[in-house]
Each structure stands twice: as structure tokens, then as C-alpha cells.
Amino acid sequence: ILNVEQSPQSLHVQEGDSTNFTCSVPSSNFYALHWYRWETAKSPEALFVMTLNGDEKKKGRISATLNTKEGYSYLYIKGSQPEDSATYLCAQSGSNYKLTFGKGTLLTVNP
Amino acid sequence: NAGVTQTPKFQVLKTGQSMTLQCAQDMNHEYMSWYRQDPGMGLRLIHYSVGAGITDQGEVPNGYNVSRSTTEDFPLRLLSAAPSQTSVYFCASSYRATPSSYNSPLHFGNGTRLTVT
User: Which of A:28-47 have CB within 8 Å of B?
Assistant: First the structure.
């Protein structure tokens, strides 16, 4: 069973701040790294899927990078807005069929 | 497309009762899976399927059965409910049979909140 660690567990920022959080993944047997956004009372929604070392993905104000050699991925949010408040999950596929999730980072953006 | 549909949304069972959580997707996805979400834990994989007739165990399979008779449906059966199975259950699917594929993020249903007393 893979150990996917996310930090910090929770984060409070002010509207307009830029922020980032980390997903640490075992570097061995790496297949893919997923990021999901999970709003309260909803279901997780996919943000990015990254498979190659050095991958960078961007969607609006949110971007992510992947470093498989060092075993981490960063998620960045530029100019945080209250609607960005959510739990951000990362997950690693260490075999072709099983996705292991971290416990998430809870982001609260204060207006 | 309705996406991934889970029923029921809420369920209360007594210890020892059995029930089936339903999951259906209309996106012709190969891969389907069941996760449970518990406080302080990440989403944990119960069972998964890479196509009709093919299922396999995830991280926490004990107490649960699954079958995949069609591409669209992937029900999760609790044979004899226990209080430890109180949780929120999510069904998720992806287009390709491997979630490691470049274009295969998981699509989640809205969840089923199960309480076992």
C-alpha cells in the first residue's frame, strides 16, 4: 500500500493571497499523480492528471507541478478567492489499477 | 449524460442486515471503483473493476462484495452490516481501464452515507 502524504493538513489564507501545498509520493513504481478538488457537500472533481517527471499543468488560477525523482507534487493557487475554499486531494497510481489518496489539504479563503 | 449515479443517498442499517449500494455510469467507462471516506482518513479503495466480468480487491475489501455484469453498473454489497462499515461511500469511474492513463481522471458519484447501528 502506497503512503501518500499531503501537507499542510489545513490552511487559512486571505482573499487575494497566493498559496501552495505539497503532495509527497513514493518515487518507486510511479505511474500517475492526480489532483482533485472536493467542496463541502459535493463529490471530488478532477483537476489534473500528471504522468511525467517535470509535468506542469494549469487551469485558470490553479497550477500543478510534478517531480517524480524527488517524490513530490505542488499545487499552486494564485490570487485565492473564497470559492477556492475546499479540500484538495492528491492520489498516486502505483500500479495500473489502484489509486491511493492522501488525506487532503483543507483550504479556507477568508474574504 | 447523467455521469455517475449512486443510490441511495442515505441509508440506516441494523447490525447483521444486508444491502446493496447501486452505482451506474452512462459514459461507457471501462474502470469503476468503490471508495469509503472516514473522518481523518483518505479515500480508501474497497473494490475495483477494469471491465465487465472483471473485479478485484482494493485496500479494504473485507465485508464487501462486488460484481460487474455490465459496463454500466457496479453494485457494492454488504453481506452482514457491522458498525465499522458506517461511512460515506463513493463510486468512481474512469474512461480507460487504468487510472494511470494520461486522460483518465476519476469521475465520482455524489456518495452514499451509510449508518450501521
Answer: 31-32, 34, 36, 42-46
